[in-house]
Here is the input.
Amino acid sequence: MKKIFVYFLIILFFNTSLFADNLAEALLKAYNKNPKLNAERENINISKEDINISKSDFLPTITLSGTKSKEDTSKLTNQSGGDASITDVDPLTTSLLIEQTLYDGRSRNADLEKNKLGLDVSKIKLLKVEQEILYQAIEAYTGLVLANNKYKINQSNVNLFERQVETDQARLEKGQISVVDLAQSESSLAGANAKFIEAKNEVVTGKLIYENVIGSIDNINNLTDKLNFNLKLPESLAKANEISQKNNPELIIAKLELQQAEKDIQIAQADLGPSATLSFETSQTEDLSATYDERDKSILKATVKWPFYTGGKNRATLNKNKNLSNQKRLLLEDAITSNRTTVASAWSSYQSSKSLLNSVRSQVRAAEIANEGITVEYESGLGRSTLDVIQSNTLLLDSKTSLANAERNYLLSQFKVLESIGLLTAKHLQIN
Here is the structure.
């Protein structure tokens, strides 16, 4: 039985130095293929076109048009006052119109600056979603590895209790143990089978989550357990807060959206004032009548508009944009407060998971020593009962499972700190 437990411990071995080359590959796959991320990348292209649209407002517009109509007039009056008639007049008119805005109260400038800020927002939103997807991918990958390890652990546990039952059946026949002892072993085997079934279900669930976030996977056993990332975390909570102020996407987005709202105020203010345009139009009309075969016309026109009264629409728009600006300012204040809480929470979880991991490791070492001693005493007939062995095995199994969970939680807490300060990116992790 001692040999069995040595084999059992080897299978159960699990620590954070494990978590693998494959994790980087999985993150890269999610980074390149995740639909939500690709949608955000497309949004950047949309923002770039918004800038091009704003730039076009500074350039003149040129419109070429042509019309052709058919007229059938039965009665006209000529220049001498007599009757005349024209039938089937078929005029063709072509025109060229050039228009240029000369002044608009800097509305175009504000709109261009707003859309440039919009591009910055799109880029930061991409980083925000990138962090979310990468963390989800880390959860999915480590979750599946953990589920698979638990599956193997519980499979070995079932094998262990099957051998325990076989041993106890043989010892019962020799009169070395009672029927109660055998029943305890059989009960433990039934419990081990139940946990094994649960472990199998966890693998199925883990695989579904993995494929949803990262993509398809052919063989779960191909996932390796090594972590090649050199996670450089801040040395203190104060340093974490300092980094977060510069890098947290939520904060940056809130600041940029406030600046956008201020540009909307400038646009609304410009709409209350005058605007000036200059236009030039040239046209040519053929077959106008029986008298004129062709007429050319050129018009140079300067236009000044001042929206003196619009039913209060422009003023209401200005007030609305001022209110939106105040809203964005309040949301920025809230984002600053929330960010401090988020960073502090992530840092606290990191510290507590580290302490818990050390405690669980000590628990496992103690359980291993105790289990080895109880197993030797049982096999030597030194007074240890079947129940003692079963309880020792169960304690060791539970402690090893706790260790696996603690290892994963500690790893996740480190990535969570990086996410809270805005550094859980492909660039920072050096995977792209």
In short: The longest strand covers residues 92-103. The radius of gyration is 39 Å.
